[in-house]
Write a structure and sequence with these properties.
- This protein has about 190 residues and is of the alpha+beta class.
- The chain is built from six helices and four strands; from the N terminus they run E-E-E-E-H-H-H-H-H-H.
- Strands 1-2-3-4 form a four-stranded antiparallel sheet, with helices on one face.
- The relative contact order is 0.08.
C-alpha cells in the first residue's frame, strides 16, 4: 500500500502479521516494523512533517520531532556498523605485540556484559560496575583487580593508536577509576 508520504507493506511471520512502514528522505530509505497498520500510519504521518517551516522559515516543532526519529534510525545504523568489544579483542590478539597480550585477553573476556557492546559505547560506569562484579564473583584481591584494570587500559590504548579506530574517538573508560590498595609485597634478600 503506497501512501503520499511513504508506504506500508504487510509481512506474515509465524501466523502473525506485522506492518513495515517505509519512507524515502534525502536519498535514504527509513523503515520500521509495527504490530498494527494504524501504528505504521501514525509513524509515517509524523515523518510527513520533515522539512516543515513556519512563516519565518524556522523549523517547526513537528519537523524537529520527525528529525529526532530520523536521527535515532541513523544512530542505530551506525551502532550496527561499529565493532563490538569482542571484535576488538580478536583484533588485539592478532595484532598486539605485547608479551602479556594473551593473559590480557583472558582477563578481557571475563567482562561478559560488555563483550557485545559497541566499542565506542563502553563507558566508565559500565566498566567500573563490571569490574566490581568480577571482583565479587571471583573473590579477587585489590591487587588482582588492578591487573584487570591495567589489562583493560592497555587494550584501549592499543585501540586508540590503531588507525581503524581513530574515527570512533575512543575514551579510555579506566581513566579516573580508583585503583585498589596494593599489598606490601615480599622482601627478598
Amino acid at each position: 500500500m503506497t501512501i503520499k508520504n511513504g508506504s506500508i507493506t504487510s509481512r506474515k511471520h509465524n501466523n502473525k502479521t506485522r506492518f513495515n512502514a517505509q519512507k524515502q528522505y534525502k536519498g535514504e530509505r527509513y523503515s520500521k516494523l509495527f504490530d498494527t497498520r494504524e501504528d505504521a500510519q501514525e509513524w509515517l504521518d509524523d515523518l510527513a512533517y520533515l522539512g516543515a517551516t513556519d512563516f519565518n522559515g524556522h523549523p517547526t516543532r513537528k519537523d524537529k520531532a520527525a528529525q529526532i526519529i530520523i536521527d535515532e534510525i541513523d544512530l542505530r545504523r551506525v551502532r550496527n556498523q561499529t565493532p563490538t568489544m569482542l571484535d576488538c579483542i580478536n583484533l588485539f590478539v592478532g595484532e598486539c605485540d605485547t608479551p602479556s597480550a594473551a593473559k590480557y585477553v583472558i582477563q578481557l573476556k571475563r567482562f561478559t556484559s560488555l563483550l557485545n557492546t559497541p566499542i565506542n559505547e563502553v563507558s566508565r560506569l559500565a566498566f567500573e560496575m563490571e569490574l566490581d562484579g568480577i571482583q565479587e564473583k571471583r573473590g579477587l584481591s585489590d591487587g588482582t583487580r588492578n591487573r584487570y584494570q591495567a589489562a583493560f587500559s592497555s587494550f584501549f590504548k592499543f585501540l586508540a593508536c590503531h588507525k581503524e579506530f581513530k574515527k570512533y574517538q575512543l575514551v579510555n573508560p579506566t581513566k579516573d577509576v580508583p585503583r585498589g590498595k596494593e599489598g606490601k609485597g615480599r622482601m627478598l634478600f
